[in-house]
Amino acid sequence: MEHYLLLLFIGLYLLHYTESTIGPGDRKSSSRIPEKIVPSSSVSSSFKPYVSSASIPKESFPPSETHVLQRNLLQENINPKSILENYQSYCYTCIDTRQFTFPTLIFITPWNNHGYDLVKIFTQKFDYISPVWFSIKRIGIEKYSIEGTHDIDSKWIETLKEQHSDIRIVPRVLFDKWPANDVHALFQSEDEKQQLSLTLKNFLIEYNHLFDGYVLELLAQFSDSSKSVLNHIISDITEHIHQIDNNTTKKKEVILTVPPVEEYFSKNDFQTLSEYLDGFIVMTYDFPTKEPGPVSPLG
Predict the structure, then answer these.
(1) If both were cysteines, with which of 77, 135, 149, 235 could 21 make a disulfide (CB 3.0 to 4.6 Å apart)?
(2) Beta bridge partners of 48
(3) How far is it, in rounded angstroms, from Cα 183 to Cα 198?
(4) Of 117, 158, 122, whose CA–CA distance to 35 is shortest?
(5) What mean pLDDT is predicted for residues 72-84?
(6) Please, which residues bridge with residue 106 across strands?
């Protein structure tokens, strides 16, 4: 099986990291106004792209025919004024052009509506889109429930797949705030592990037409538990997901979020899980630092 390291694309509107469970209060607003999508092939010299004025400072420039390199915006010493003037001035003739050839994944959050519209503009630039919708809980003996289904936006997903037939929708599933007795039950019982995997598998079968797999977030949440058992749980979930037959050449995929802390995820863990998982996301923006500066080292 071929494995790769997914690059995490961090956008101003598209990405927000959370360690809390999504609740009813995080539901998307029904008054969300979609962005106008303009294919690059139909752009003319007289075209004036639509820009929402709701949150744009007066000094912010509109979308441009040229990209950031042509406008000399990538500089070592950048200033706040330049950011405020250009942060929404994307290249509207380049929305279908990719400069980065490796796999890309972005997170979309239900509490930031603008991200839903931006991804419809730049769909061709991404391989994986991970809506931050779901969490999973143990609700009884060998019983598990996936929460957050109220946030599922079927029409939005269908629009993305119409625009980019190869796009993969892999919602994030968070294992968060589990009571100690639930963690103990899962780690001690093979029957519990099987039911957890089956719950995730059956949910994906139910929403087979919408979702192409999962992004799992559980390493930090279970960091105090047995590492070998945790790896077994992850590999077991992945094997169950890979068993799904969706009558296409593309199997369902499982991607694991990895905090940049060796205690949570080591080289040995990578070697063990790379035989099962389809990809890893290194959460570089969580890299610990005491001083303001880059979110992660370059080497």
Answers:
(1) 135
(2) none
(3) 17
(4) 117
(5) 86
(6) 129
Q: 191, 184, 45, 27: which is closest to 110 by C-alpha?
A: 27
Structure token digits, residue 161: 């797949």
Ordered domains of the chain (ranges, CATH):
5-31+98-286 (3.20.20.80), 39-94 (no CATH)
Exposed e or buried b for every residue in 206-237, given b needs 16+ CB within 10 A? ebeebbbbbbbbbbbbbeebebeebbebbbbb
- Residue burial 121-139, b: 16+ Cβ < 10 Å; e: rest: bbbebbbbbbbbbbbbbbe
CA separation for the pair 217, 118 (Å, rounded): 24
More confident residue, 240 or 74: 240
Q: Which residues pair with 135 in a beta bridge?
A: 147, 174
| Token output for 253 | 């995929």
pLDDT band for position 248 (cuts 50, 70, 90): low
